[in-house]
Design goal:
The protein is built from 32 helices and 29 strands. The chain has about 950 residues and is an alpha/beta fold. Among the domains are: about 140 residues; about 170 residues, Rossmann fold (3-Layer(aba) Sandwich), CATH 3.40.50.300; about 70 residues, no CATH class; about 100 residues, Winged helix-like DNA-binding domain superfamily/Winged helix DNA-binding domain (Arc Repressor Mutant, subunit A), CATH 1.10.10.10. Helix 16 packs parallel to helix 18. The two termini are about 45 Å apart. Belongs to the disease resistance NB-LRR family.
Length: about 950
């Protein structure tokens, strides 16, 4: 590295002239020995960072309310940040050094850059000295890093119990538990209650445990809190202590010194001929069951073991039919529970009218979490019933959670889940707190952000980091930290939601640990932002923040669409070490020039903006992994884009028709140059085809998702040959150059991992057998104009979930036979002008949930067989003939009576229909604010 830098500096000096040559030459000579030593120092400091990060992750959750330790650990984090800054600054200057054009454009800044290089040795020395002082400080104050505060966790679960009269909701769950516990069954049964912290698992379990009818049906019973920090021997002694009541006095002197094996034997011996009922509350680890499974003998007396847990892997110890997953309370139940606690002194627990508005907002903030409702309701029960006081409490709720000892119980319970996370998951989860409340976290987006920030490990063996990130998401879901709010029709999770109070608590921790800051209203102190933020999200009021100065910032996410381009330029110019920059929905027409100076940038999102061109200077972003320019006006990328050899995702297109009925519902983007250089590319949407490009695609062997448009028949041989080399391809979209172009893709060989295939254009001989993979879950054909009924040729695709046939068939009748498409959930039949009859036999598509019929001008009657599809819960009818609609409301109404949701668009104006469908779709995809932002910045536009 040092030699290469010196060569570049000499080239710069020659370019600047003789005077500069002499001056820079002197700097080069002075810098040379420093550069040589510096490379060794950099390797050492990188190793130091990895140790520091591992250390912080190991000890950050060990202490509770230890202020001295927290203060010391805070300084350790600062030291780690300093080391990371040195490493990232090194990467930044390295990128500048090899970017010759950058030097030419900044002729007179070269000496300054040399000065920056010369600062590194002293910076490294200073941080090494600081780390040494921290080590001495640890010894001086006697911080023991191996200690874990066990006493704080062990009894947590016992606090959250309600009297039977205060239990609200979960009546069905309690009834089901009671039935299971009383059922006559010889085998020992293991029952599980699953749910996030604070949902009332302990309260529900306690209700059945105290039920006298249940207790008297067992010979003995015990309630044991396991917790995160259980000791097996202590656990076994506690079980003995509760079960063996009569004999306990005679054996007290002995069982305190018994070994683990002997304790198990004592429990086995006692339970051998008894029907027992044991509750294991707050189980965090499956391993504890390996021991207890032997202790709790299978004696065929109908014994029962009930476990409560936040973790799905623990609840899976029980058979599926014996697992109850608790959900948050419904709005009416939340209000009832709150009133019981907050207004228990009043008659009938009635909320006074003057504070009802604020009481409703407080309850809504709890989002159905019983722990929060009960705790906050109890605190407010002795507050004055004045509107001002209740308004103040609500507005200060975030502060109260962090600082009010009376609310500390909520934070502690919710923190347990966070503290249980391994380090690689903890950082990823902290990152999610940067998003606004009620924000739908999308799987693909958060995976890219984690990867860009270096939070996802590389596992090798052909597993991509995107797949590892998805494993992280699933694990966080199984730990009840995320709720899956939307799934693709194939069942794969699409969006996740963090409970608002969990987000609040996590945000407090992230801010305390200087991990991230989210600004919801602007106006935060400049000092706080400048010196604490490592990651910053501004949700609203960005322009009220006078200055943002933070070289430490690594992620900058802007949700405020009202800021001008000049503000963005001035702000982003302060964050030169950024890895993540998200400007989605921002009202800009060009890429701010400062963006191309962010040499460390990994993730850039400028989707849903008015950007029209991508500058050639994008070629400087050599570390860029993900570029998102969806729903912009970009039609061609510069030649320099092929220099970005680390690109993993490249998305540049606009969706013109959300209903996907027009032949050109997606725009395509031209990529000049040799695309072979982008060997890490996994996603490419939507590239405009040409003869050279389709032949080069075969070099992109890591490709998972490819969308290619403007395809001609003359390209097909090369394209099919390239696709065959993409053995990892899962999603493929092919679109022809115009409606009259006919494709023959029979030569396409099997793609073993293909799960989604979309084709827009005429097909000469139908689809090749290679497409009919048993793995295929989604098939969409647009304008294929097939002459034969295509449905029968798809019928053996047992895993097909989505089927779109838009202008795909020129015939008059489609037939769906019994037992066809058993897993199909979404069917769209559109714009087949000759179609006049759809036959649906009894037993076809038994799991179909969504049916869309659009532009079927000759379909005059509602298909009779719809009445057989009982799972159908939504039907969308667009541009259907009047005769069809009259029968739907009249003589054929009995066919669709079982469908709860039928939407009808009577307009024949496809653009009007598109507008009606697009904004709700956008709101569902990105949140309610997205549709408003999109409408405001694209008012009157037609391009996207």
């Amino acid at each position: 590295m040092a030699d290469a830098l010196l060569v570049v500096l000499r080239k710069v000096a020659l370019f600047l002239g003789e005077g500069a040559l002499e001056k820079i030459g002197k700097e080069v000579v002075e810098a040379a020995p420093l550069m040589t030593d510096f490379e060794h120092s950099m390797k050492q400091i990188e190793g130091e960072l990895s140790v520091l990060q591992a250390f912080i992750n190991q000890v950050s959750a060990q202490r509770v309310s230890d202020k001295a330790f927290d203060a010391w650990l805070n300084q350790v984090r600062d030291a780690a940040h300093e080391v990371e800054d040195i490493i990232d600054e090194y990467a930044y200057l390295t990128a500048q050094a090899v970017d010759t054009s950058s030097f030419f454009k900044r002729k007179f800044h070269q000496i300054k850059n040399i000065a920056a290089w010369q600062k590194f040795p002293s910076q490294i020395s200073q941080v090494e000295a600081r780390i040494q002082r921290l080590s001495e400080m640890r010894n001086r104050y006697g911080f023991s890093l191996g200690e874990i505060d066990r006493n704080n966790n062990f009894q947590l679960s016992s606090h959250f119990c309600l009297s039977d009269s205060e239990i609200v909701g979960n009546a069905d769950e309690i009834g089901k538990l009671t039935q299971w516990l009383l059922e006559e069954k010889q085998d020992r049964s293991l029952i599980a209650i699953l749910g996030m912290g604070g949902l009332g698992k302990t309260a529900v379990a306690s209700t059945v445990y105290k039920n006298q009818k249940i207790i008297t049906s067992f010979d003995c019973h015990a309630w044991v809190i396991v917790s995160q920090t259980y000791q097996v021997e202590e656990l076994l002694r506690e079980i003995i202590n509760q079960l063996i009541i009569k004999e306990r006095a005679s054996m007290e002197s002995g069982f305190m010194t018994m070994s683990r094996i002997r304790l198990v034997e004592v429990i086995q011996s006692y339970l051998q001929d008894k029907k027992y009922f044991v509750v294991l509350d707050d189980v965090w680890d499956k391993d504890v069951w390996l021991i207890l499974n032997y202790a709790f003998v299978r004696n065929r007396h109908g014994s029962k073991v009930l476990i409560t847990s936040r973790r799905k892997d623990v609840s899976s110890l029980a058979a599926d039919k014996y697992v109850i997953e608790l959900k948050t309370l419904k709005d009416a139940e939340s209000w009832e529970l709150f009133c019981k606690k907050a207004f228990h002194a009043s008659e009938d627990n009635i909320c006074p009218e003057n504070i009802r508005y604020w009481a409703n907002k407080i309850v809504a903030k709890c989002q159905g979490l019983p722990l929060a409702i009960v705790t906050i309701g109890s605190i407010l029960s002795y507050r004055d019933l004045k509107e001002q006081e209740w308004a103040f409490f609500f507005n200060q709720l975030s502060w109260q959670l962090a600082n009010n000892p009376e609310l500390n119980w909520i934070s502690r319970v919710l923190k347990l889940s966070l503290n249980d996370l391994p380090s690689y998951l903890r950082s990823c989860f902290l990152y999610c707190s940067i998003f606004p409340e009620d924000y739908k976290i999308r799987r693909k987006m958060i995976s890219k952000l984690w990867i860009a920030e270096g939070l996802v490990e590389e596992r090798g063996d052909g597993t991509t980091m995107e797949e590892v990130a998805e494993c992280y998401l699933m694990e966080l879901t199984q730990r009840s930290l995320f709720e899956v709010t939307e799934r693709k029709t194939c069942g794969r999770a699409r969006t996740f939601l963090m409970h608002d109070l969990v987000r609040e608590v996590t945000s407090i921790i992230a801010k305390k640990e200087k991990f991230s800051i989210a600004l919801a209203h602007g106006g935060a102190s400049t000092t706080q932002v400048a010196h604490e933020a490592r990651r910053l999200c501004i949700q609203r009021g960005a322009q009220t923040i006078n200055s943002l100065r933070s070289s430490r910032l690594r992620s900058f996410i802007l949700f405020d669409a009202e800021v001008p381009c000049s503000w963005i330029h001035d702000t982003v110019s302060c964050f030169r070490l950024l890895r993540v920059l998200c400007l989605r929905f921002v009202n800009v027409e060009q890429v701010p020039s400062v963006v191309t100076e962010l040499y460390n940038l990994r993730y850039l999102d400028m989707s849903y903006t008015k950007v029209k061109t991508v500058p050639a200077s994008f070629g400087k972003l050599v570390n860029l992994q993900s570029l998102d320019l969806r729903e912009t006006y970009v039609e061609e990328l510069p030649l320099e884009i092929t220099r970005l050899t680390k690109l993993r995702q490249l998305q540049v297109y606009a969706l013109y028709d959300i209903l996907q009925r027009s032949s050109k519902f997606l725009s395509a983007t031209k990529i000049p140059g040799n695309i072979c250089h982008l060997k890490d590319l996994q996603t490419l949407h939507v590239v405009s085809a040409n003869k050279v490009l389709v032949s080069q695609l075969g070099n992109l062997k890591l490709m998972r998702s490819l969308a290619i448009a403007e395809v001609q028949q003359s390209y097909i041989a090369e394209l099919c040959n390239s696709l065959t080399k993409m053995t990892n391809l899962k999603t493929l979209f092919i679109s022809t150059c115009n409606v009259n172009e006919t494709l023959n893709i029979e030569m396409l060989k099997p793609l073993p991992n293909l799960t989604s295939f979309l084709l827009s254009g005429k097909l000469e001989r139908g689809l090749p057998p290679s497409i009919f993979s048993m793995n295929l879950k989604q098939l969409k054909l647009f304008g294929s104009s097939l002459k034969k009924d295509p449905v029968s040729s798809f019928s053996h695709m047992l895993n097909l979930v989505n089927l779109f046939l838009t202008g795909a068939y020129d015939g008059e009748q489609l037939t769906f036979c019994t037992r066809w498409f058993p897993n199909l959930k979404y069917l769209q039949l559109a714009d087949m002008e000759h179609l006049n009859w759809i036959e649906l036999e009894d037993g076809t598509m038994m799991n179909l949930q969504y049916l869309s019929l659009a532009g079927l001008r000759n379909l005059k009657a509602v298909p009779e067989g719809i009445k057989y599809i009982r799972a159908l819960h939504e039907m969308l009818l667009t541009d259907m003939p009047n005769e069809f609609m009259l029968k739907l409301h009249g003589s054929d109404n009995h066919i669709v009576q079982h469908i709860p949701n039928i939407k009808k668009y009577d307009s024949s104006d496809s653009q009007a229909v598109n507008n009606l469908a697009y904004l709700p779709w956008l709101a569902n995809k990105f949140g309610p604010g997205a549709a408003i932002k999109y409408a405001s910045i694209n008012c009157g536009s037609s391009g996207s």
